[in-house]
Specification:
heterodimer; A: 73 residues; mainly beta; OB fold (Dihydrolipoamide Acetyltransferase, E2P); four-stranded antiparallel β-sheet; globular; B: 380 residues
Amino acid sequence: MAEQVVKAPMRARVIRFHAQEGAQVAANQKVCDIEALKMEIAVYSPVAGTIKEIHAEAGAHVDADVPLFTVES
Amino acid sequence: MEPIIDITAEVWAQSGVVALNWKHPIMWAIGLLFIYLAVAKKYEPLILLPIGFGIFLVNFPASPLMGWGDDFPDLLRFFYHFGLVWQILPPLIFLGIGAMTDFGPLLSNPKTLLIGAGAQLGMPVTFIGAIMIGMTPAEAAAIGIIGGADGPTTIFLAQQVAPHMLGAAALAAYSYMAMVPIIQPPIMRLLTTGDERRIVMTQTRVVTPTEKIIFPIILAGLISLMVPAVMPLIAMFTFGNLMRESGVVDRLSETAQGALVNTVTIFLGIAVGATMVADQFLTPIPLFVLALGLISFILCTSGGILTVKVMNLFLKPENKINPLIGSAGVSAVPMAARVSQTVGAEANPQNFLIMHALGPNLAGVVATATAAGLFLALFA
């Protein structure tokens, strides 16, 4: 079991999550959308696995490197 | 009976119908086309809507909008004369843009300045090409600058070196800005390999508030020394940015990037549209402007990408730059950076290029204004 924490790639606003804690995701499956520079940007799971924890809430403003979710493969 | 006929004839003679000719409906169609593009397609609506309506309005020849009255200009002529001929409106737009701009991405990776410079490639090439097909150097300059996809800078330059081309040049610049997501991706894919598009760039460093305050002051000083002709634009740009970054005049900064820039955009758009009266506009020149402007824009996009590819020859593997951010070296902020993000994510969903692309994007604004300054110094 390996855990991977996916962090915000830039200062952004979290729009929505497409998967909940405990959900199975494939590699490169869209897990959440963030907004930066008025552009909606998808954040994907880097590996196949289970969403172990979601760290941010929809609507929250996050700085770069703030954890968004943890995926366990 | 006779007086009634005389009055009727007089009213008819003074109506707008008598002065119409075949050119006017064509201009109405052009005006309505840009209104349609703004409303239905959302192509740069903030500027193309006023321009389109301005074109429509001034092509009713009897309307007192763009002439000179006995002692004073008609309404739209007033906006044009004191806004554009006096070079007031484009610098005020730059004041607002400066107040909106966060130079952090550029300062965190100053190498991107080179990319912004490389993305001006289309200007000298188109400039020479336009002269070769018979344009004057001043006209060629007004066409070449379109490649930078910077509307206010294009207007600022064209008004001073080739005012008869102002409308067409502004339309071309704003149209190509609107079409960045359509025009750029095929060029980006053509000039890069899959491996290059998948390059993941390391996160940039955080820029301190002090650096952000000092930057506009240094930039204003440097441009004043090197390319003083463009200082009306850069002075306002850096002033707006200094207000933003100083953090002590938030009210002024918010006004500059909000109410002021909105107000100015209204008058800029309708004044530019009002320059396009049928007799002056329906010539082959606007077609040349649009065609050569497109070539300049394509070459500028290519220049930015190729500049990155050349830079990568000299960079360590871990510091390689994704060439897709090169296309953002044109000035269309932040549209071109968004396109870099979109095309980059297609190649590698784990890649986030948008903030990296903002560096060359901002550098492109400065580089295009600098190029305009050089053209002004030579041909104004």
